Amino acid sequence: MIPQTFKSLAALYKAMDKTWNKIAARYPFKCSGCKDNCCKSLFFHYTYIEKAYLTHGFNALDQAGKEKILTRAKNYCEKTFAKTPDVKSLKIFCPVNENGRCLLYPFRPMICRLHGLPHELSRPGLSPVMSRGCDAGLFDDKSYVKFDRTPFYQQMAQIEIAFRQGHDKTDRIKETVAQMLISQ
Question: What would the mean pLDDT of 19-40 be, rounded to a whole number?
């Protein structure tokens, strides 16, 4: 059961998944764990509501599962954020990935849901920023199917604003999944 706090986020995630699946089918494209697996990408997440939702799913796991993930998360952070000023992707699997499957799939953040497909983002007064999609899709040879992520980001911002007000959060967040789980 999803607590009331997360209902609007769960609804947004459902809309994201539906749209992603519809666009992927038009290419056609299936994510199949390619060589440059997005679960090995260095993704930062910027919302407290997503952190809370991810940790809600994490806390529902059995103790052994949580301990295994936390061990991997600590290892991930030690390697990724070693004592160097430059943080770069070392292509280490996300700590919640086990044997190619996300153990927190229903609770995964927005970027994990939207990654892979060519898309655009619009900012007021500027031309849309286009992204070509992941290498696995070989999208360069295909005509672009419009996938504007902007409405999802706008809705996420509104959900985050409401969540922060209810939880007295004023500072910014920029964390990987590993950092979110360790700092919960």
Answer: 85
